[in-house]
């Protein structure tokens, strides 16, 4: 019995060690699926219920609610150990009120965080979303902007944390990844224009691509009946067919989601290609993708609230964008312009 006990103990110990080694091996991997799973519906929901709450007063540019919003974003990056590319501890790119050229708009700020590339740090992948919304209606009702663009804001934070999880175990991106939260989108794409034309923290010639996220938490009427997850993609082939092909390949490999290119048509009367922050990068010949779920009955209304978000869809869409960013950050060659 004594020898049998010793044998059993040894077997348990070896099995435990082997299991532990396998777990560690699975964690320390260059496979992006490992880190994509850190992006969860529950975390997205927790963040969005705060970010799109009444406490943030609709996040109108320059107003107190928007100031709460930038602190919220900054604090998540500080907690995750993701640094600023500006100076240590300073995540805000200040934009003076005079730049907005609109009466009643106070000073505002973009929020920037980044992960430095391990092999090609001078080449930059930008993920962007606008942090502002339209504030309080005349009747006193708060426009919470859960989908527009709370969904994009929390998606970028989760993507950043996934990249950071990879970096912690030795698989940081080869290229630098900038997480850019811009202000003033709702009043004229001001924050992204300021970054692109006045104070690009990284030279635009070194910017490989901009992946812009603006409303990815809902389902529009066109896609309600099918029940399938989908995204509208806008701009992916306008400056780089290679970007379009990479995007399609990532989707087929990991998700096989429905990509809808309706609004990518040059003759689209909605002109969405010109109406979100990616356009200020496209104007400088930087390839872009604009991820969008389409409009819905709650667009720009107080009823755009976090309880109406499809969090399972939001999780999958965020993971898709993470995988696309991962591929673009880690591929051997920089994207080619047509």
UniProtKB/TrEMBL annotation:
PANTHER family cross-referenced by the UniProt entry: METALLOPEPTIDASE M28 FAMILY MEMBER (PTHR12147), PEPTIDASE M28 DOMAIN-CONTAINING PROTEIN (PTHR12147:SF26)
Domain of life: Bacteria
Protein name in the entry: M28 family metallopeptidase
Lineage start: Bacteria, Pseudomonadati, Bacteroidota, Flavobacteriia, Flavobacteriales
Cross-referenced InterPro entries: M28_fam, Peptidase_M28
CDD domains: M28_like_PA
Peptidase M28 domain location: 110-323
């Amino acid at each position: 019995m004594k020898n049998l006990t010793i044998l059993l103990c040894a077997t348990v110990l070896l099995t435990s060690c082997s299991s532990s080694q396998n777990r560690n091996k699975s964690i320390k991997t260059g496979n992006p699926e490992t880190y994509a799973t850190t992006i969860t519906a529950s975390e997205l929901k927790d963040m969005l219920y705060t970010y799109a709450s009444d406490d943030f007063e609709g996040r109108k540019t320059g107003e107190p609610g928007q100031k709460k919003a930038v602190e919220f974003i900054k604090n998540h990056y500080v907690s995750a150990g993701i640094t600023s590319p500006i100076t240590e501890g300073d995540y805000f790119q200040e934009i003076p009120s005079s730049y907005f050229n609109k009466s009643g708009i106070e000073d505002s700020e973009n929020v920037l965080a980044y992960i430095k590339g391990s092999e090609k740090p001078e080449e930059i992948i930008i993920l962007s979303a606008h942090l502002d919304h339209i504030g309080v209606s005349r009747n006193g009702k708060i426009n919470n902007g859960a989908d527009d663009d709370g969904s994009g804001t929390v998606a970028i934070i989760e993507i950043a944390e996934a990249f950071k999880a990879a970096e912690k175990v030795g698989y940081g991106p080869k290229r630098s990844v900038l997480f850019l939260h811009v202000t003033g989108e709702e009043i004229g794409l001001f924050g992204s224009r300021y970054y692109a034309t006045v104070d690009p923290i990284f030279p635009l010639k070194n910017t490989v691509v901009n992946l812009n996220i603006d409303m990815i938490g809902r389902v529009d009427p066109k896609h309600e009946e099918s029940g399938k997850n989908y995204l509208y993609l806008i701009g992916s082939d306008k400056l780089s067919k290679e970007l379009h092909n990479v995007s399609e390949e990532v989707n087929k490999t990991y998700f096989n989601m429905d990509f809808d290119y309706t609004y990518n048509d040059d003759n689209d009367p909605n002109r969405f290609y010109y109406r979100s922050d990616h356009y200020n990068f496209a104007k400088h010949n930087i390839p872009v993708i604009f991820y969008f779920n389409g409009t819905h009955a709650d667009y720009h209304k107080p009823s755009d609230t976090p309880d109406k978000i499809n969090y399972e869809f939001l999780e999958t869409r965020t993971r898709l964008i993470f995988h696309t960013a991962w591929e673009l950050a880690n591929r051997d060659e920089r994207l080619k312009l047509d």
